[in-house]
Design goal:
DNA polymerase, domain 1; hpI Integrase, Chain A; 2 domains
């Protein structure tokens, strides 16, 4: 009886949940992950959606802290547990919206967020060194997208040629986090760097259209095989730049985004302006950058 019920959940509600996430504009990885975590929850509780209570969720939360990690020794990370909490929050909000349940069992609960490690950011002089270490237009374009425009990794991956309007100096993010769109003004330097890459160096210019897919033709950043650049390729390229510039900090693409946000605040931009630039839904998400001590901001802006 339990197995039949779980099959029904998997075939219907969880499958529909994935479609719901796709319509909201979540990334493909999130579309896959959240339904998988919900399947884990329903396997544990073996209850119908309408029967789930706040106590069931609290019990599951406790179980996650006790459950052994199936990949490596030890338990689940706080970050992975928080992903479960987020999946529950989104799923039950959707169920309440649909009218499947009269009360959202997550509405009365509050869980501690995982403690984040200190954010590694670059100083202005280190950013300058990165630019000086560039040996081609592609490397400058990478810095332009993730530092100059503050894009997320998924936004850089989804960027198309048509999304950059060089004449009006604007970059359009069609599919940001949570499906939100935004427009980013390009500085003259960033515009020139992106323009040089697009018109002088982009690999597709040297590849026959007959051998390229439509996605290849549309994607802005391409690898040497003419395929759209993905996160791993971006990070490898950034790592080369960091080594060339003799910067030992653990900086990722998101570290470039953190860096520009910090520098913008240090330069006097308001929290609201930085929020809109980054594409945050809530001001609280942007306020994390104000936690850096004022002395550190002064130090960064004067290096």
């Amino acid at each position: 009886m339990m197995q039949t019920y779980l099959n029904e959940i998997t075939a219907h509600e969880i499958a529909h949940f994935k479609v719901h996430l796709e319509r909201l504009g979540y990334t493909k990885s999130t579309q896959e992950m959240l339904p998988r975590l919900m399947k884990s929850f329903f396997t544990y509780t073996a209850k119908k959606i309408s029967e789930i209570t706040a106590e069931d969720i609290t019990t599951f939360y406790t179980y996650l802290h006790e459950r052994p990690n199936q990949i490596k020794p030890g338990g689940l990370s706080e970050s992975y547990i928080h992903h479960h909490v987020y999946a529950l929050k989104v799923f039950f909000a959707w169920q309440e919206q649909k009218g499947t349940m009269s009360q959202n069992p997550m509405s009365t609960l509050a869980f501690k967020r995982p403690i984040s490690k200190p954010r590694a950011i670059l100083s202005l002089s280190e950013v300058k060194r990165l630019y000086e270490a560039c040996e081609n237009y592609q490397e400058k374009a990478l810095l332009g997208l993730f530092y100059g425009c503050g894009l997320r990794k998924s936004e850089g991956e989804a960027l198309h040629l048509k999304d950059i309007h060089f004449r009006s100096s604007l970059l359009y993010v069609r599919l940001g986090k949570g499906g939100r769109r935004r427009v980013i003004p390009l500085s003259e330097k960033v515009k020139i760097d992106l323009q040089n890459y697009a018109y002088k160096e982009r690999p597709f210019q040297r590849i026959s259209k007959r051998n390229a897919s439509l996605e290849d033709q549309m994607a802005f950043m391409l690898n040497q095989r003419g395929k759209p650049m993905r996160g791993a390729s971006y990070n490898r390229l950034l790592k080369v730049l960091l080594q060339r510039a003799s910067i030992s900090k653990e900086i990722t693409l998101h570290g470039l985004r953190h860096s520009i946000a910090t520098h913008l605040l240090a330069s006097g931009l308001s929290l609201e302006q930085v929020r809109d630039f980054l594409g945050h839904k809530h001001l609280e998400s942007t306020q994390v950058y104000t936690r850096i001590q004022s002395k550190q901001l002064w130090h960064l802006s004067n290096q």
